[in-house]
């Protein structure tokens, strides 16, 4: 015969009850045996605690307990099947809750995070999404985050990170040059709508950053990575300069400086006048200015050199002509 556990002291019983209530709230249904095992108590002690919860609550405005002021359980399930199902909750209902729209937005964000390689264990994220749905003031809208063109690339990189193997791919640089690269994947980062892979490039024997939409013919090899995240120090900034970079003088709104901080060389002069800052940015190629200017339309102006202005102006004219 199993040894019966000693009765709990009053202080221990209070702590047990305070832990049991949120435990039951987080579960739609749980057996007495499972809950008793979770808390390390006798099953009869667990049943006594559930019966006590069912006569607990918060009095209403009249300071008298009404039926809606008490917890309630599915008694038939409890007495006949040893299953615990809370059918009415109190106290927690008076706490601030996310609206259905807020919960839906958070759930969409969590779905987006499941695409990140560092979130390979997605069970915890799935559990959090379920809790958000249950805890909202109303049922969130059913939604799903649409797949992007980089989803398959992200999935391959995620698998390579987990397996600790090298990647091979064709990469189109900002200069329009295509090369086959072999890389130890270290980190995935996003800036606005673009995704970047940071890793040790065996061709360049250095840390390099690759934009995912410029990667083609990506394959995960069977060769183990040479460098792991703890073996090399990744630069704090996503974009790092090289001696071949070209400097471009620009004027940009002071409020937009944080958006181009990674492009500004260390020690670059910044002249401010009437909320506009004149400074320099480094680019691998003048054609790389197109995306920068497009993202800061009306906020950033290219001043010098003339070749850079011509590239941006020609790109802008080509865009206008498409609508004429």
UniProtKB/TrEMBL annotation:
This is Proteasome accessory factor C. It comes from Leifsonia soli. Residues 246-318 form the WCX domain. InterPro entries: CBASS_pafABC_assoc_protein (IPR051534), PafC-like (IPR028349), PafC_HTH (IPR043839), WCX_dom (IPR057727), WYL_dom (IPR026881). Coiled coil: none annotated. PROSITE patterns: WYL (PS52050). Signal peptide: none annotated. The keyword Metal-binding does not apply. GO terms for cellular component: proteasome complex. Residues 12-133 form the PafC HTH domain. It comes from the Bacteria. Keywords: Proteasome. Residues 152-218 form the WYL domain.
